[in-house]
Design a protein that fits this description.
elongated, alpha/beta, five-stranded mixed beta sheet, Helicase, Ruva Protein, domain 3, 7 strands, two-stranded antiparallel sheet, Dna Topoisomerase Vi A Subunit, Chain: A, domain 2
Length: 201
Amino acid sequence: MSRKIAGPEIERMIQFLAKLPGLGPRSARRAALHLIKQKDQLFVPLTAALEEALHKVVICTNCGNVDTVDPCTVCTDLRRDRTVICVVEEVGDLWALERASAISGQYHVVGGTLSALDGIGPDDLNIASLVERAAGDEVAEVLLALNATVDGQTTAHYITDRLAGCSVRVSRLAHGVPVGGELDYLDDGTLAAAVKARRPF
């Protein structure tokens, strides 16, 4: 049995930090210690930023992005190509494509992938609203930028079937994205090249 190394408040903070992606118990302890050491320069401003985000962050009702306004900044950007909707699994994928400046169109976050194993069906994802958006007069292409996993490809096929009644071209990222790869972990050059080399699905 491991011994307690600090008071319950610090232990609780470490437990919550350890739940963040990429942080295990050891990294969480290091992060907590760093925050405590940098209390005025880091801990206090971080706490204020988290508190503000808690009350202001919303999900865009149009595309599923997270922002402090609804519709989000991406959806209201008039410079974007309204004829293209890029479909991604999660907001992190949208941010990855934006970092690479790879897409000039709109986005649609479906919120995951179909997975019989995990009990995730079409009704659990943001697909119906995508079909509704794709049926609009402006949209000419739906680009499926889903992760190259089995569940990602299953979801892509399902979305393609659902879009069959819409007069849009359905394309997907080129195979520059490795099988089993996730968009958020790819470098900007690979993402940009994959988008440029997209082809019909």
